[in-house]
Design a protein that fits this description.
Radius of gyration: 13 Å
Low-confidence stretches: none
Number of helices: 4
Helix content: 40-55%
Largest sheet: 3 strands, antiparallel
Oligomer: single chain
Length: 90
């Protein structure tokens, strides 16, 4: 597993904003719902199987859960975040 890259100031702002609005722990099967469809549970499962998933995960019974900040940081470092100044730039 390669070390996570350093996040940009915009990405750090995104992480802080998102983490403050979410519960402290998110179950893998609920990640897509809590994160607005940004990541699928199967993507997380595949990354975990390859040893490349979020750094902090827990098994609770049969469910896999992630510390929210670790999950969001993993997504941002893997896919990146860019602030859109104008909807016209899409």
């Amino acid at each position: 597993m390669k070390p996570p890259r350093e996040l940009t100031p915009v990405e750090e702002e995104f992480v802080t904003t998102l983490v403050s609005a979410l519960p402290p722990v998110i179950a893998r099967k609920e990640a897509s719902r809590y994160l607005g469809g940004v990541i699928a549970s199967q993507t997380l499962s595949n990354a975990d199987s390859a040893g490349e998933g979020p750094a902090v995960a827990y098994r609770v019974g049969r469910a896999v859960t992630y510390r929210t900040e670790a999950l969001v940081r993993w997504i941002v470092s893997r896919y990146g975040v860019i602030r859109i100044e104008s909807i016209k730039t899409l």
